Amino acid sequence: MKVLQVVRQYKPAVGGLETFVSELATHLQERGIETEVLTLNRDFADGTTLASQSIEDGVKVRRISYFGSKRYPIALSTIQYLKEFDLIHVHAVDSFVDYLSILKPFHRKPIILSTHGGFFHTKNQEKLKKYYFKTVTKMVLKNVNKVIACSNNDASIFEDITKTNLKMIENGINIEKYQQIKHIRCTKNHFITVGRFSQNKRIDLLLELISNLSDVFPDIKLRIVGRDYDNLKVHYNKLIHKFGISDHVEIIEGASDDELLELMADSQYFVSASEYEGFGLSALEAMAAGRIPVLSYIPSFVKMINDDKNGYILDFQCMEQAVKKAKTILENQNNDVLIDQAIAYSESYSWKTVVKDFQEVYKGVHLG
Questions:
Q1: Helices (H) and strands (E) in the chain, counts
Q2: What's the predicted TM-score (pTM) here?
Q3: What is the structure's pLDDT at 121?
């Protein structure tokens, strides 16, 4: 069987979606399923034009040109690359799945879609998004052979428009990669947050939290690691200056995998104030690494965190309460049992287990 993974951004771009597809492709190949990646030829973060072809971790990658915005990029040449594949796996609900679904009568390839949060990461144009979802997306999914929801949250959203061909497979993580640092001694009161710089991540709330803690905990430090997806770095720097916390915050772009592991190893806590996550991949990776998760009160995080048992939940919409609870967390340095519970929870998401679920879906769709 030969499978084409279609995704708008891929290595060397950095992010949860890119990591997911990379891990899936790598583990599929280890299990004998030939896999290639088709993606766009520009890095959304800085506009860099990327090589038309490359090999990334043993996986062949083709990159094609597009027009339109990064929110809805249109790559008309996509259909030219389908012929040699047995099935097409599209990642995220964007122009790729619209285009390939509409043209299915011509290319006749089975299509699998992984939801990755749909397009509900922010509340911007929420009414328009819901209308589009219940009309255009609903129509598009009629030509999709299997919709894979990446979380309970996604499953509850997508079951309203496609019930008969919906299956939930939660994301996998590279347990071995992150557990290699679980015993490395971290630096007290160091926080890390990882992910693209986008509106839904609410980095502004993290900066406000740090500003309220820095007087009481002068050794506190927050590292913001990711790529500037929404051109927010200037805004973050203005807030850092406004709050007077330049000695407590560091913004790091384009960190390699090894650099990210070093930064995470130095951190005691992984923190996120995100207002929407389809799954929460980075938080789960941090748990595997033995970092203490301090996460926002949203469905994806509430599902994975048993508050005060394997991590902590903060309600960032009430900053006064969030600060009060954060102070209690930082004052409590006896977290060995909590860390063990966080690591144990993460182990059920090993890619070695998750890839088998995808393989079963592929087999079912391929055999019809």
A1: 15, 14
A2: 0.83
A3: 58
User: Dihedral angle at the C-alpha atoms of 79, 85, 91, 97, nearest 10 degrees?
Assistant: 30
Res. 120 pLDDT band, cuts 50 70 90: low
- Output the six-digit token pair for 321: 């309460």
Kindly list the strands in the beta sheet with 53-56, ordered across the sheet, starting from the edge strand earlier in the chain.
53-56, 59-64, 34-40, 2-6, 87-91, 111-114, 146-149, 166-168
Q: Are 295 and 272 in contact (CB under 8 A)?
A: yes
Q: In whole angstroms, give the CA distance from residue 364 to residue 110.
A: 11
Q: What is the 3-state secondary structure (H, E, C) of 56-120?
A: ECCEEEEEECCECCCCCCECHHHHHHCCCCCEEEEECCCHHHHHHHHCHHHHCCCEEEECCCCCC
Work out the mean pLDDT of the chain and round it to a whole number: 94
Secondary structure E strands in 136-246: 146-149, 166-168, 187-194, 221-226
Domains of the chain listed by start with CATH number: 2-172+350-367 (3.40.50.2000), 175-348 (3.40.50.2000)
Distances (CA, A) of 198 to 27, 121, 202, 230, 231: 29, 9, 8, 5, 8
Tokens of 100: 């390939």
- Give pLDDT, residue 227: 87
Tell me the pLDDT tens digit for each residue of 275-304: 988 788 899 999 999 999 999 999 889 999
* SS3 state of residue 125: coil
